C-alpha cells in the first residue's frame, strides 16, 4: 500500500475513533437532565399518578443502577470480542445496540412504558463498552508510547467537552418552553441519529487496527475475574479500596443532583442542563489547576486528604442552602475539588502495578467505576424518599472514609 494512501486510511480511522468517543460521551451526558423529571415531576412522570413520591424515588434509584450494571457485565465481553474478531466488528455491534437503545428509550418515554424504558437503559449500558474499544484502537494506531499518550490526552479533552456540551443540549432539547418541538423524548431521537451517523463512519471510514487475534478462550465473566485478580494483589487492593470510596462519594452526588434541583427548586430541564454544564467547566478548571499549579508544589497524598475533606464540607453546605445561585457556586467548588481525585488515584494504581499487568489493572478501573455507578443509586434510592438532601450527607460520609483510608497509606506515588 502506498505511503500516502496508508496515512489517509490511518487518519480516517483515527477520526472515526475520536468521533465514536465524542458520540458515546455525548450520548451518556445528554440524558443527564432528563431522568429526574421523568420519574419525580408530576406533569412528566412515566409512573402512575397515584404512586407515592417515596416509591418513585426508589424506582429512580433502580433505574439509574441499570446502566452501570449492564456496562459492568458487558464491557469485558465486548473487549473479548474485539480481541478475537477485531475492533471493527465490536464497534459496529456496540454502536448498533446503542442505536437500538436510543430508539426504544424515545418510544418508551413517548408512550410512558416503564418496562421498555428499563430494557432500553440496559441495552444502552451494554453498548457503553465503546470506551475500552476506543482506547484499544488508539493503542493500535499509535506508533510510540509518546504518541499513545498524546492520543489519550486528546480523548480526555473530548470527554471534558462533552461533559459540558451534553447536559446543556439535553436540558434545552427536552424543554418545551424553549421550542414546541422539544420534549423529554426528543434528546433520545437526537442520540439515535448521532449513533446512526457514528455507525456509518465506522462502517466506511474505520480500518481494522487489530491484526493479531487473541488465542485466549472466550470468557463471558472476565470482568468478575479481573476483580478477583486485582484483590489478590495487596498493594493494589489497598489503593482500590480508597478509589472505591472516592468514586462512591462522587457518584452519590453526581447522579442525584437533578433530583435535588427538581424537588427543592422546581427548575426546568433547561436550567438543569445549564447547571450540569457549569459542573463540567468546574471539572475542567480543577484538572488544569491540579496539573499546572498544585502538583509541582504539593504531594499527591496531601492533595487527596485535603481535597476529600473540603469536598465533604462543600456538599454538606450545598444540602442546606435554599438559594439557587449560592447552591450552584458551592456545587461548582465541590466539583472542582472532586476533579483532583480521579487522576491521582488512577495514577497511583497504575504506578503500583507491574508493567505486564497494566492492561488488566486499568481495565478493572473501568469495572470499578461501573460498580460504584451501580452501587450509588441502590444505596441512596431508598433514603431519597426520606429527604432530598440525604445523598449529600451520604456523599460526604463516603468522602470522609476516603480521607481516613488515604491518611493510613504510607506512600501515595507521584503521577
Total domain units: 2
- State the CATH architecture of the largest domain: Up-down Bundle
Indicate the low-confidence ranges by residue numbers. Answer: 355-359, 411-415
Q: What is the structural class?
A: mainly alpha
Helix content: over 70%
What gap, in angstroms, lies between the N and C termini? Answer: 40 Å
Helix count equals: 16
Give the strand content.
under 5%
Mean pLDDT: 81
CATH class of the largest domain: Mainly Alpha
General shape:
globular
- In the CATH hierarchy, the third-tier topology of the largest domain is known as Growth Hormone, Chain: A
Order of H and E elements: HHHHHHHHHHHHHHHH
CATH 4th-level superfamily of the largest domain? MFS general substrate transporter like domains
Walkthrough of the structure:
By secondary structure, the protein is mainly alpha-helical. It has 16 helices and no strands. Helix 4 packs antiparallel against helix 6, helix 7 packs antiparallel against helix 11 and helix 10 (234-265) runs antiparallel to helix 16 (390-408). The longest helix has 33 residues, at 53-85. The protein is globular. The two termini are 40 Å apart. The model is unreliable at 355-359 and 411-415 (pLDDT under 50).
Amino acid at each position: 500500500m502506498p505511503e500516502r494512501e496508508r496515512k489517509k486510511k490511518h487518519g480516517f480511522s483515527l477520526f472515526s475513533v475520536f468521533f465514536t468517543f465524542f458520540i458515546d460521551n455525548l450520548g451518556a451526558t445528554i440524558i443527564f437532565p432528563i431522568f429526574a423529571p421523568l420519574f419525580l415531576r408530576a406533569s412528566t412522570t412515566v409512573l402512575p399518578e397515584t404512586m407515592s413520591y417515596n416509591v418513585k424515588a426508589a424506582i429512580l434509584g433502580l433505574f439509574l443502577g441499570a446502566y452501570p450494571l449492564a456496562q459492568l457485565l458487558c464491557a469485558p465481553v465486548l473487549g473479548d470480542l474485539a480481541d478475537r474478531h477485531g475492533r471493527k466488528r465490536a464497534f459496529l455491534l456496540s454502536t448498533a445496540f446503542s442505536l437500538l437503545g436510543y430508539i426504544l428509550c424515545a418510544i418508551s418515554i413517548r408512550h410512558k412504558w416503564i418496562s421498555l424504558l428499563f430494557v432500553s437503559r440496559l441495552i444502552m449500558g451494554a453498548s457503553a463498552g465503546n470506551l475500552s474499544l476506543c482506547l484499544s484502537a488508539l493503542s493500535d494506531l499509535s506508533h510510540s508510547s509518546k504518541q499513545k499518550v498524546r492520543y489519550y490526552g486528546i480523548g480526555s479533552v473530548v470527554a471534558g467537552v462533552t461533559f459540558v456540551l451534553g447536559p446543556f443540549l439535553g436540558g434545552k432539547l427536552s424543554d418545551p418552553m424553549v421550542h414546541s418541538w422539544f420534549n423529554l423524548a426528543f434528546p433520545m431521537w437526537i442520540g439515535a441519529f448521532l449513533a446512526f451517523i457514528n455507525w456509518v463512519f465506522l462502517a466506511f471510514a474505520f480500518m481494522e487496527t487489530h491484526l493479531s487475534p487473541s488465542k485466549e478462550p472466550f470468557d463471558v465473566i472476565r470482568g468478575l475475574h479481573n476483580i478477583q485478580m486485582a484483590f489478590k494483589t495487596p498493594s493494589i487492593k489497598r489503593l482500590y479500596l480508597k478509589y472505591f470510596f472516592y468514586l462512591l462519594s462522587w457518584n452519590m452526588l453526581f447522579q442525584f443532583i437533578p433530583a435535588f434541583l427538581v424537588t427543592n427548586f422546581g427548575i426546568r430541564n433547561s436550567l438543569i442542563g445549564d447547571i450540569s454544564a457549569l459542573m463540567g467547566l468546574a471539572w475542567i478548571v480543577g484538572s488544569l489547576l491540579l496539573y499546572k499549579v498544585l502538583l509541582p508544589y504539593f504531594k499527591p497524598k496531601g492533595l487527596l486528604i485535603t481535597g476529600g475533606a473540603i469536598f465533604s464540607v462543600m456538599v454538606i453546605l450545598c444540602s442546606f442552602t435554599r438559594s439557587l445561585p449560592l447552591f450552584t457556586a458551592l456545587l461548582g467548588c465541590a466539583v472542582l475539588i472532586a476533579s483532583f481525585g480521579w487522576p491521582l488515584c488512577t495514577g497511583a494504581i497504575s504506578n503500583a502495578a507491574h508493567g505486564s499487568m497494566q492492561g488488566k489493572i486499568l481495565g478493572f478501573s473501568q469495572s470499578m467505576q461501573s460498580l460504584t455507578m451501580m452501587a450509588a443509586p441502590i444505596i441512596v434510592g431508598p433514603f431519597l424518599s426520606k429527604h432530598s438532601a440525604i445523598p449529600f450527607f451520604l456523599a460526604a460520609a463516603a468522602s470522609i472514609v476516603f480521607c481516613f483510608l488515604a491518611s493510613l497509606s504510607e506512600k501515595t506515588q507521584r503521577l
